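Course assignment 3, question 2. Fill in each field.
Student: A.L.
Task: Predict the tertiary structure for the chain below.
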Amino acid sequence: MSDAGNMDLLRKQRDELRDEAIAGDPAGVARQRAQGKRTARDRLDLLLDPGSFTEIDMYRRHQAHGFKVGDNRPLTDGVVAGSGTIDGRRVFVYAQDFTIFGGSLGAAHAAKIHKVLDLALATGSPVIGLNDSGGARIQEGVLALDGYGGIFRRQVAASGIIPQINVLLGPCAGGAAYSPALSDFTFMVRGTAKMYLTGPDVVAAVTGERVSHDELGGADVHGRRSGVATFVHDDEESCLEDVRYLVSMLPANNLSGAPVPPRRDVVDEPRPRLADIVPAKPNLPYDIREVIAELVDDGDFLELHETWAANIVCVLARINDEVVGIVGNQPLVLAGVLDIEASQKAARFVRFCDAFGIPLVTLVDVPGFLPGTDQEYSGVIRHGAKLLYAYCEATVPRIQVILRKAYGGAYIVMDSRSIGCDLSLAWPTNEIAVMGAEGAVDVLFRKELAGAADPDALRVSLMDTYADELVHPFYAAERGLVDDVIDQADTRTAIASGLAMLREKRAQPAPRKHGNLPI
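Answer field:
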């Protein structure tokens, strides 16, 4: 056969292999779609810009023998891996293919994911994993477990350097669940995504407790109760659309800033509605999300952990085109107190923003930490210290805005001037004190009140005196702990001006291997 004939044959063989890899197993694809799930390649088409995907290791096959896999060596080995773009920005991706070995992870499968993670770190690009896997491939034994370990080690090495996103579109069981836990953001789809370390059968055998897959590790369980899921969606389409939106808010890596259009000059943009949203009386509730919507560009923001630890709100948004992280107490839930879960949620968010150079804006309206034996016995001191540590360690521009009350240790923890915020602003309704006037009077004047002819009248008089002398709006400003007392309507402009002022902030932490976070 001539050289030309040989080349034609080789091209034909290559094309046939490519077509086989792309088509996959027809029966498996049919089963996947019958369950209301898209294929791995369908999902990548939704996630990435059209025509941008470059696949690697398409021809990879496992090298295992026996136990029903030796004669079945499909191309790709159950994971589609490579790189593409989202709105023109480079990302690295892998999508597990449940139609091949149930998406289970063996040595070749793991090696492809290792390669994606290595390339993402080497190029300084975000990495996105689309998970749909039955777990470790039993037939490959310890090699499968070693593959997971290699993934986890690479994720830890990349933490704080490139954004890591995990999307659960099917099962993610056993050791595989640690990959989403190590990521910066985890998405789950209701009805199809399941995540747990030990499945319902093991739970029943060990504890006698009967629980369904969804009750044990469904999307709402991790969205509301465990806090493992950052975002929960009803379908794959809206989920992957939000992944794209999230990527648009993130820097490619820790050395590059978040994507922004040409910066606008700061202009006076009054928001008079803020005074109507937030009642002047400190014990009346309101929705902090309405405040955030007034402060950010076009009222548009992306909320993390919306249904977990709802007494604190964490969002990514833009103010004057600049991406910022906003942390705010939520008076609608538990009066906005800090507790164990709120501290954990906010601490992780603060550390993410700091790692990737995203400025922080903290909206304060906090009555304190949640009291009670349950909180104390469960370590609220240790968990509250996580948020304190996160703020103290953060070197990005930090702006605090005190809307109403800021009492006790919770005031300190919510990025007060004393722990290093760069700019502290306060509304005329601010009340900064060790505690509210009523509680303070009851502690300080217990004997006087007990002996008074009219204790109620005395209490009111003492409360007025306490508020006038120690809790008036300018008390902290007079002592340099608040930089300015601003009109509510001027808050957006003041924040934008503060961000512009702090844009070139540089901080050099003292050299050390790492601190000892109170985990």
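Instructor remarks: The domain at 273-435+472-502 is CATH 3.90.226.10 (2-enoyl-CoA Hydratase; Chain A, domain 1). The longest helix spans residues 3-23.
Grade: pending
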